[in-house]
Amino acid sequence: MNGATPPGAMLVPGTRVRVRFDWPESRGPAHVRTPHYLRGREGVVLAHLGDFPDPSELAFGRPAPLRALYHVAFAQPVLFGAVPEEDSTLVELYGHWLEPLGQEGRMS
């Protein structure tokens, strides 16, 4: 998880992030809550929603550490191509999938 948000660190609204380009499901059974189309993409944190038990562990009946959950906005043209430039997609993502890029506060 190189570059991922360290446990206990909270991302603030406006932080630019990149979703980790990782495929844990390729290494064996996994319960992954991060959509494929977001991996490797950049967005902007809009809000910290709280800390919740990690669903990727709960799915297998294992003890689950608390993970920070965020609303992250992505510019739709970056995700889907030819759509209105001002459109965005709002997604809930766990912090261990996010790599902070800075505080610029714009979607790229």
TrEMBL record:
Its EC number is 4.2.1.84. Residues 13-100 form the Nitrile hydratase beta subunit domain. Coiled coil: none annotated. One of its GO terms (molecular function) is nitrile hydratase activity. The keyword Methyltransferase does not apply. It comes from the Bacteria. It is an enzyme of class 4 (lyase). Keywords: Lyase. The keyword Isomerase does not apply. InterPro entries: CN_hydtase_beta_dom_C (IPR024690), Elect_transpt_acc-like_dom_sf (IPR008990). Pfam families: NHase_beta_C (PF02211). Gene3D superfamilies: 2.30.30.50. This is Iron-containing nitrile hydratase beta subunit. It comes from Roseomonas mucosa. The lineage of its organism: Bacteria, Pseudomonadati, Pseudomonadota, Alphaproteobacteria, Acetobacterales.
